[in-house]
Amino acid sequence: MAINRLQKLRPIISQKDLDALLVSQLENYRYLSGFAGSTGWLIISNSHTILATDSRYTEQAKQEAQGFEVIQIRGELDNWLPGLASDLQWHKLGFEANHLSFAAHHKLSETIKAKQLKLELIPLVNLVERLRSIKEPAELELIIKAVELTDAAFEQVKATIRPGVTEKEVAWEIESFLRQNGSEGVAFDLIVASGPNSALPHAQPTERILHHGEAVLIDMGARIGGYCSDFSRTLCLGKELEAASSQLAAIYSAVLEAQLTAIDKIESGMTAAQADQLARRVIEQAGYGDAFGHGLGHGVGIAIHELPTLSPTSADLLTDSMVFTVEPGVYIAGLGGVRIEDVVTLEKGRAKVLTKSKKDSFQL
Amino acid sequence: MAINRLQKLRPIISQKDLDALLVSQLENYRYLSGFAGSTGWLIISNSHTILATDSRYTEQAKQEAQGFEVIQIRGELDNWLPGLASDLQWHKLGFEANHLSFAAHHKLSETIKAKQLKLELIPLVNLVERLRSIKEPAELELIIKAVELTDAAFEQVKATIRPGVTEKEVAWEIESFLRQNGSEGVAFDLIVASGPNSALPHAQPTERILHHGEAVLIDMGARIGGYCSDFSRTLCLGKELEAASSQLAAIYSAVLEAQLTAIDKIESGMTAAQADQLARRVIEQAGYGDAFGHGLGHGVGIAIHELPTLSPTSADLLTDSMVFTVEPGVYIAGLGGVRIEDVVTLEKGRAKVLTKSKKDSFQL
Fold first, then answer.
1. Please, what is the Cα angle at B227 between A222 and A187, to 5 degrees?
2. Does the pLDDT at position A26 exceed 60?
3. What ipTM does this complex have?
4. CATH class of the domain at A134-353
5. CB contacts, 8 Å: B293 with chain A
6. Which of B56, B189, B331 sits opposite A293 (nearest CB)?
7. Overall pTM surpassing 0.95 (yes/no)
8. Is 3.40.350.10 the CATH classification of the domain at B2-132?
9. Where in chain A is the domain with CATH 3.40.350.10?
10. Where in chain B is the domain with CATH 3.90.230.10?
């Protein structure tokens, strides 16, 4: 698997006229090598496939990164990379400009100068991220398993959620279910946000008790075989809505229509900004444009947030075999918020929804 | 609380001759402002205390960051920071060089040039991190609570751990206990590593079944009120050691002696490298120097790894009110590993051990 991916990467390295590429971002090196430790660098040239890590991880790296030459390093990048590049007579080395700190780059440059090496550092962005955004069938299968698990967790929570329990209790119930049913940790900190808390798009579960007639926003993700799912639903407990909830019910309708419209009309070949616009227009027409403050969605894979980025300014091109979320939301401070989120994949030019949980009704 | 911390920071900003400091690192801005969202920037001058975040977090920021002016931003740093600096007539802006990517810095510099602003970006390292390394009494109290919780979790696991269960089952039991007893998530991915897996210092729990006479290395952390604990013990299940374990028993003795020696002799005023050397010498004399591949420990606070860094090359100065781990380890590929880790604080010049769990015996 990693071999295929390297075969896709190497022509890009050649095309950029590089002797080698330094990969420093965790999900990127995991994708290319299989190595899942928290510290490591890949150095990939046409003839070398090197994984550099420290002594805490060398054994794990040898087990996980088939086909890679594992070298044990000490200290920071400037301590070992210039010597390696010099030994291998590399003169142009690409690096991930979004994932190397200013300080690390500066120290590396200073060391190269001090050693009088002819080594040029070339900043690059999203090289591996763009490969990762197109999912292989085996990757899609793992994402589907993770999506099925969040669907199952939602069924479970629907059966037990009720007024009187706290946000934290609901969050723990969901997390326990996910973990006991095969999720490797959770893909991100779960959100269970009730009443006014649901107006915070990234709320953390609190001791607040759930009440009748309020919004309860649930956002969760599972991880299976290293691949994430991402799932949001907003519920209203109890059949009789309070006065405060009639506005929430109207918001729910607008968000749902925006989400269904986007899913229906997204096509391969669109930019991610055009996809975002499909949903945004519906919400704007309902009068809530200012209250939809985030993008429509994001790619999902080894990382919970990856390419493509669906936002009003994104130039990412949507293509078949991408997997991403469609999750419009409207948030009114003091009242509450509604977000509805599915994971979709682009197949034969159209969005196929992977998430199965119902979303047609606000009321539980 | 945040006000005190700003009062410590502002003289440093003046001393560096800066108009303002940009704080981009999550734990750093949380420490200074109380804001715990995942995206934000502080901009601190003598007369301004600004928290910039996007619409997902503005409500939360207003609730959490008392005394800060919350501004809502869109897009990346280069989209809003140059305008702000220009409005406030700043000419020298410090930034966290370890926590700003090469790409973000580059885009910001290009925008400043294009707008012909007189704004110089000054790279700085560890300014806030050094403040964070000296704990206030209230911070120490929270760390002690987190340490007490890991002690309690270990008591629980000792009562139920036995040959026949898997690493994953033990890990889930520990995590459930921590979470159900007040831990906010876990401070890091738990390690339960048995037999040869314990030779991987950062192993992930697997389906491997625990056996008699093998090492089982447990490493866990809790989080209370935002503050972490970190805890490791290595056990051997069953009273009759297999032949393979006599070497492990010898390693256990060496690691324990190294840990006790370091705790006994660490003093305020030492460098962190000198502290590391106290333990390393004992392990070297026992013949396992090459198998102790990591540093002696690390600071613990809002982050699970923070200053001081106890390693053979660290120049960090140990001072009173620091809190850090003392965790020597020896790892033999194929056989197994031993690590013993306590959290200590420096008080009146000496190390006071916060962790209470026994460590005198390898056998459970």
1. 10
2. yes
3. 0.91
4. alpha beta
5. 54-56
6. B56
7. no
8. yes
9. 2-132
10. 134-353
